[in-house]
Amino acid sequence: MTSNYQHLSQGQRYQIEALKTTGHKQSEIAAVIGVNKSTISRELSRNSTQSAKPPDKYKAKNAQILSAKRSYVPDSPKSTNTAIQRRIKWLLRCDWSPQQIAETCANRLLPMLSAEGIYLWIYSQNRHPIDYTAYLRRHHRKRRKRKLTNQPRTIIKNRVSIHDRPQIVAEQLRFGDVETDLIKCQNGYIVTITERKSLLNLICKIPNKEAATIQKAIIETLEPIKASIYTITSDNGTEFANHEAITKELGIPWYFADPYKSQQRGANENQNGLIRQYLKRDTDLNLYTNIQIKHIQNKLNNRPRKKNNFLSPNKILSLQCVALVT
């Protein structure tokens, strides 16, 4: 018997009908036809006429019709609407995600596919001259699960645990609590700072991951707005070893998430993924000026976000009159 599922042919269904009529068990029918017995079980369950009585309950002709009707799924009229397709293409080129496109269009009463429908449309365009998966955040040509890797961490001296952080930070009741991290590219690194409530991003380019370099970059980035910042949270990377010096300079307490608990810094981790749309691991940072990095930062901060009811971070902060933009 084969282990891979295949659709039954009409001839096989006539065999099932004949064997079923003569009283053969499902396992025996499966052995004769050369399929798994679960295939026979599904076939009899899905394609039998429930109102009929044996031996008329399963008829090959009726089973073939039922199977054909169920397998045919016509395209949604919206997915073939040229105006909707043009809008999807345009917004994808503006670096919007399918969910941002779907929700924003719905809020503006514009005809649009659902987020899942947009993904299906994108992946159905595999023969199109333009590869629209290139406009997705991670550029995956196929959907795949994220994998976790455990890496050894060095314990940082005098670090303060995230469990000692004020509860108001976890509840996201105020603006001014930030998370920070480091992402690697060719010939340099990017320091990322994310405000938890608004999802505002502050990013800057640095040449290496030495603690002194990180210290200088974070102080220079947060110095102009330190009066509006309450806490900083990071992972346990040794690049943050000078956290005490940063706290002393800025007057902002620093907290460390638990090892291998990236979900405790979910806002920053998600934003790092968005930044990767522009700055991949093989991106040569020597080819990017600080002005170009600032341009990427502005694009991220002007995108609508699901968490904020599809308002951009800049819009959220302007409505709340919070001065976090440097």
Commentary on this structure:
- The protein is elongated, with a radius of gyration of 28 Å.
- With about 325 residues, the chain is an alpha/beta fold.
- The longest helix is centred in the N-terminal third of the chain and has 12 residues, at about 10-20.
- The protein folds into three domains: about 10-70; about 75-135; about 160-320, Nucleotidyltransferase, domain 5 (2-Layer Sandwich), CATH 3.30.420.10.
- Helix 2 (about 25-35) crosses helix 3 and helix 6 crosses helix 7.
- Strands 3-2-1-4-5 form a five-stranded mixed sheet.
- The chain contains 13 helices and five strands.
Quick tags:
Nucleotidyltransferase, domain 5, elongated, 5 strands, 326 residues, 5-stranded mixed beta sheet, 13 helices, 3 domains, alpha/beta
